[in-house]
Amino acid sequence: MKKILLLLIGLTILYSCDKRDDCFTIGEKFIAEGQYYFLDDELGNNRYENTRPSGQIIISEEVYTEYLVGDEFCIN
Fold first, then answer.
1. Cβ density class 25-58: b for 16+ within 10 Å, e for less
2. Is the pTM of the predicted complex or chain greater than 0.85?
3. Dihedral of CA 58/64/67/68: which sign?
4. Which helix (H) or strand (E) holds 28?
5. Do 68 and 25 touch, CB atoms closer than 8 A?
6. Which of 41, 45, 66, 72 is 20 to 30 A from 21, alpha carbon to alpha carbon?
7. What are phi and psi of 18, to 5 degrees?
8. How remote is the C-alpha of 25 from its chain's centroid?
9. Which of 24, 23, 26 is nearest to 68 (CA)?
10. One-letter-per-residue 3-state SS of 28-74
């Protein structure tokens, strides 16, 4: 019985670690006061509903040029 319980706990941990709940669709990109931003797409085009970050995020110039509006961006 203990082995089954440990197996279930292990599978639960592995499943939860695989979840990508820190991703969102870029709704807008902008530069303000020398800082680069992505704005979350608030229209719900994101498949990670309810667990995703929202609002805006400051990113580097390199990341800013690497992504386009509509791309999925994941926070590391």
1. bbbebeeeeeebbbbbbeeeebebeeebbeeebe
2. no
3. positive
4. strand 23-32
5. no
6. 66
7. -80, -15
8. 8
9. 26
10. EEEEECCEEEEEECCCCCCCCCCCCCCCEEEECHHHHHHCCCCCEEE
